[in-house]
């Protein structure tokens, strides 16, 4: 019952959040990168990081946050959060989530394919300059979304960086 109430509160916050527009002269470097991912896709984190590293990203500047579902999973290597980390009024109590949201990433990769309310909330609240995701997810939280049949990390990064190069040359 409380989880349903928490989700409704978080949905209201998502609907109120507004995505800041991109500057018309999109030409900032991608130094700091955040990856927001759902637990079922966590096996692709290393592949995402490796693909980013091969394209010039510094591994130490890539930060990952994993959503574990209703319960926390302490066996994960990366920082994680669950629905239990939210209060009934929609405040987050997990310091890792607060730190992730406040980090002004140059790029936030929302690597999940379903509308999962806590993931959408973190994406909406993030201070990232450029937010990207998958087209099957609510479009109002991302500046840019790629339409992919399967979540393939290497292909996603390749296509994403190709589009970013095009954005920078326009």
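Q: What amino acid sequence fits the structure above?
A:
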């Amino acid at each position: 019952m409380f989880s349903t109430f928490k989700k409704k509160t978080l949905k209201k916050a998502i609907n109120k959040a507004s995505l800041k527009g991109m500057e018309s002269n999109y030409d900032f470097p991608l130094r700091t990168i955040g990856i927001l991912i759902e637990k079922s896709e966590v096996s692709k984190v290393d592949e995402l990081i490796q693909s980013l590293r091969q394209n010039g990203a510094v591994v130490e500047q890539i930060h990952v946050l994993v959503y574990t579902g209703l319960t926390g999973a302490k066996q994960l290597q990366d920082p994680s959060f669950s629905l239990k980390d939210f209060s009934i009024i929609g405040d987050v109590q997990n310091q890792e989530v607060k730190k992730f949201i406040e980090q002004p990433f140059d790029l936030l990769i929302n690597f999940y394919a379903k509308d999962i309310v806590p993931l959408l909330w973190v994406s909406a609240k993030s201070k990232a300059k450029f937010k990207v995701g998958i087209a099957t997810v609510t479009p109002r939280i991302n500046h840019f979304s790629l339409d992919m049949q399967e979540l393939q990390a290497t292909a996603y990064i390749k296509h994403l960086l190709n589009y970013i190069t095009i954005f920078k040359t326009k």
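Q: And what stands out in the fold?
A: The radius of gyration is 15 Å.
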